[in-house]
Amino acid sequence: MNPFEREVDNLLGEPVPAALHVDHVAQRASAIRRRRRVTAAAATAVVVMLFGSFAVTRQPGDRADVRTVDDPATSAPSKPGHVQRFRFVEDGDDTARQETARRLAERYRVLGYDATIVELGPSGFALVDGAGDDETDQLAAALSATGAVEILPVLANSAGAASCAPGELPQWQPSTATLIACFDVFRSPERSYRPPSVDPGADPLVVEANVAGVADGIAQLDVTLAAAVAAGVVPVAAGCQNRSTCPAGFMVLGFDGTVLARVEMDGAAGDRAALTGLFSAAQARLLGAVLRTGRLPLAIERVTDAPEEAPPASDEPAPNPTAPVFPRSPVTRSSAPVSRPPASVAPPTPETTTTGPELPASTTTTAGASTTTTSPASTTTTAPTGSTTTTSPAGGSG
Amino acid sequence: MQQIIDRAAVAPVTEPRDFTRWYEEEHRRVYASMLALCGDRELAADVAADAFAKALVSWRRVSAMERPGGWVYQVALNLLRRRLGRRTREAEVMRPMRSVVAPAADATRLDVWAQVRVLPDRQRHAIVLRYVADLTEPEIASVLGVSRGTVASNLFDARRSLAEALGPEFGPDAAGARHPEEAP
């Protein structure tokens, strides 16, 4: 007889703890699923980048095929299931924006899009979190299916949950390397977007950081974003993790990774957006390398696979992350968030002309290329101003 | 892990198993195995429950395996190793703060298993999987990721050690040392 049998019988005769009841196991399974979904969502840093080889398919001077959207809240996406653009709405304590995002998410879902929450990580990369976990998975799958997206592991996200519905992404060439992070444009969803204020004759490597009153700045930033795209540069929306100290902003990169403009919203200040440096030189170079090579130099094998034509970093004047490309507008920043009025109840205000910050000529040196001097930004943009000016949040999204 | 799954997934079953039924068949033995290995009911139950929960999460895949039990044992063993390792580290950290050492649980009923628990890892696992989980040597080899010969050797060594501590009836040459399904 097996001497263990008696002992095994004793063991098997042990009363089974309640934790092993099948219902409890099922609950644990549900918890595991939830955790996995959260992890997957966090790991679904949808950096809309690396549309193949940017260097091959896009050259400085090429114009992006931009489809302008009048209003993401009312415009039907052209291709349900194909996420064209992410719009960023921060969570925080701003229930109005949350609500707006939720409504828009529903709308987009009805239209065939997967409503999704998007967050911006500290790096400025877009992170996708799930409004519904399945939606996130679907979104990631849809993005991957386009062949235009790489899903990156997420960076820490300190901004908390944020809501976003996939909106419109300009019709980029399938192989266009792109890095677009989400940006807050839902604040005034009823407002229409205005045409990009891009000088047709402008150097395509340069885009004007044309920011008007902060009350409309978010919509205006989106215009600027579109303008940047139209101008052939790759805009990067940069949210910051700390809304009180690092307000929303974005930067515009040239093909060589040079930071052409950094735009920071300073909501508390009221009527002007500050332009400041948000990215480090290293980040800019990294992003530049991505844009140049169409590869993500985050994986070792890809680092070693860098094309020869990529100019050495030492040849590039490192953009000073602290010095603004344009002078910071004389605004006073408040660290205290100010609640916004519900966007849904704020009627569109009549358009007025707001003059943006006076921008002196900025010199941008592109690697391996001659110095490009841009004229002062023609900052006159049509941007509605109104009651929302006084209720802008400190920090905006981030 | 994939290797383990591949090893376990010899042939898909024609019909998906019913998790509840399979769970009722397996959970007691998995719990007993973990209890034999760690001597802590709470930990054993926790590990077993987590392993089954993971099986439920991946049930479509797990149920297609010829013997999902092997997969569960593997997961449970991994969980147990991890938690025991964490517990050991915590104990090391907490040692200076403790004045009294907690007595071992179930020192009377689990004497045999207390002896099993002082065996080297592989021998311990082999013994428990063999006699508590009632797995064959090839199945143990699959779960532990070693060759069948290694399992046989581990079992032999384990029983020899146990015979020294508990008596000759636990020795490798004693009756019932081999699994009934295995040829002598």
Poorly predicted runs of 5 or more residues of chain A:
39-101, 107-398
- Cα-atom radius of gyration of chain A: 23 Å
Order of helical and strand elements of chain B: HHHHHHHHH
Number of helices of chain A: 8
Radius of gyration of chain B: 17 Å
Q: Give the number of helices of chain B.
A: 9
Number of strands of chain A: 15
Structural class of chain B: mainly alpha
Assign a percent range to the helix content of chain B: 55-70%
Q: Tell the overall outline of chain A.
A: globular
Looking at this protein, list some descriptive labels.
heterodimer; A: 398 residues; alpha+beta; four-stranded mixed sheet; three-stranded antiparallel sheet; 8 helices; B: 9 helices; 0% strand
Question: What would you note in describing this structure?
Answer:
- The complex is a heterodimer of chains A (398) and B (184).
- With 398 residues, chain A is an alpha+beta fold.
- Chain A has eight helices and 15 strands.
- Helix content of chain A is 24%, strand content 14%.
- In chain A, the strands form six sheets. In chain A, strands 2, 6, 7 and 8 form a four-stranded mixed β-sheet that branches. A three-stranded antiparallel β-sheet of chain A has the order 9-10-11, with helices on both faces. Chain A has a two-stranded antiparallel sheet with strand order 1-5.
- In chain A, a hairpin with a 5-residue loop joins β3 and β4.
- The C terminus of chain A is likely disordered.
- Chain B is built from nine helices and no strands.
